[in-house]
Write a structure and sequence with these properties.
Length: 423
């Protein structure tokens, strides 16, 4: 009799899946409060546009979180040792985010230098919290459960974004901004309670002897370990694949899309309703679907399918170009794109999670996830110039053609990874 397939129901109903939903909320909440939502508050206080964009760029901290990720792998916070390494960092970063939001509410932009400092505190510890959450997720459950954990995390994350975005803006029409930020700080009670009640992952870690050994363990060993475990050929091929496969997705996340929608004749309200409200919930549905695929078939096979489907969905924008101003077509295109983007998330995270050594979880995952997102963001930086020179049609075609090198590498890696990520 063949081996029974893993239960999708069991994957989504395990306690750790819903722990991740609350931690996802905690990760999503501070992101907009130091970026888009903050910009409205600054604008209403007479801050000039140049300064607004500089202050609201505090969220760039998230792009460099791999720099201090080794701390979260190898240094326990003195006052939080009883909670363990992962929960200690989680609780510390959550308390710092809460304190930073309270400080922003008390200081207000009228005390701009101190207010900016409080904003940077929220951004830094929001990014630190993300590192801790990723490491906790990888260590709390096996690879075959990661898809479900990513799906519930994404649900919580989106609710956090909606709370810090739409709900905060609605509240700001009826209450002063300090009250809004105090309310946002109060919602952090939920993830703090989650951290206190959640179990600490059971991982045995090596304890370095002496300062030199600690530095090697923190800064050198995460890289050396990756190449030692997989060998130079497999490690470099896998890294090349990671650099390439998300280019179609990342290239359409940048600034090119807003002008494209406007050039297609859509009003801002239509764009916001379809892409920011409707699209979010379709994306969550896609994430749960991707999580179910991982729960049933592991990470590698769903990853290959999702890469092709998600990348090819960019061709739907050619259909939209043929029907400018048609809200039904826009809704169909955004639905397909967001669903496939959501579907790609769980197998991506599950595969990356399967690659890390739990001695260096935070460091290796932060580096690998940065590799996945960087090349597409670079293409996105030049997207406007490409679209102006070649037209929107050719731009979208190029994003799809960029899949070919990634899929060639996928075929080369198939014999090595097709079974491993499932267990």
């Amino acid at each position: 009799m063949g081996k029974a397939r893993p239960s999708i129901w069991k994957a989504f109903t395990q306690p750790s899946a819903w722990t991740m939903a609350f931690l996802g909320f905690s990760s999503g909440l501070p992101f907009l409060l130091v970026a888009g939502t903050l910009a409205y508050w600054l604008k209403e206080n007479g801050i000039v546009l140049k300064d607004i964009t500089m202050i609201a760029s505090a969220g760039m901290t998230y792009a460099f979180k791999f720099v201090w990720a080794p701390l979260l792998d190898h240094w326990q916070l003195p006052l939080f040792r009883r909670l363990g390494l992962r929960r200690g960092w989680l609780l510390f970063s959550q308390l710092c985010v809460t304190a930073g939001l309270v400080a922003m509410a008390v200081l207000t932009p009228s005390s701009l230098p101190l207010f900016v400092t409080a904003t940077l505190v929220v951004a830094f510890f929001g990014a630190t919290q993300d590192i801790a959450v990723d490491a906790y997720r990888i260590e709390i459950a096996p690879v075959e459960s990661q898809g479900a954990l990513v799906a519930t995390y994404a649900l919580g994350y989106r609710i956090g974004l909606l709370t810090a975005g739409a709900l905060a803006l609605i509240m700001a029409d009826h209450a002063p901004w300090p009250a809004v930020y105090l309310t946002m700080a109060a919602t952090m009670v939920i993830p703090v309670a989650t951290t206190l009640l959640a179990p600490e992952p059971e991982v045995v870690r090596a304890t370095p002897r002496g300062w030199a050994a600690a530095m090697r363990e923190s800064l050198v060993e995460p890289f050396a370990d990756f190449f030692r475990r997989y060998g130079w050929a497999l490690a470099l091929t896998t890294m090349a694949f990671l650099l390439l496969f998300k280019i179609p997705e990342q290239a359409t996340i940048g600034g090119v899309m807003s002008p494209f929608y406007r050039d297609m004749g859509f009003e801002k309200t239509q764009i916001a309703t379809v892409t920011k409200i409707w699209g979010i919930w379709i994306g969550i549905a896609g994430t749960f679907f991707g999580g179910a695929l991982v729960a049933r078939w592991g990470a590698w096979r769903p990853l290959g399918a999702a890469i092709v489907i998600c990348g090819a969905s960019n061709l739907l924008y050619l259909f939209l170009i043929q029907h400018p101003g048609d809200i039904v077509v826009l809704t169909l295109v955004i639905s397909a794109e967001n669903f496939t983007l959501g579907m790609l998330g769980p197998p991506t995270v599950a595969f990356l999670s399967s690659l890390v050594n739990k001695q260096h979880t935070a460091t290796q995952y932060a580096l690998l996830s940065s590799m996945v997102n960087l090349p597409g963001k670079v293409l996105g930086f030049f997207a406007g110039g490409i679209a102006m020179a070649l037209g929107y049609q050719m731009f979208f075609i190029i994003t799809v053609l960029s899949l070919l090198p990634a899929m060639i590498l996928f075929a080369c890696l198939w014999p090595r990874w097709r079974d491993r990520p499932h267990g």
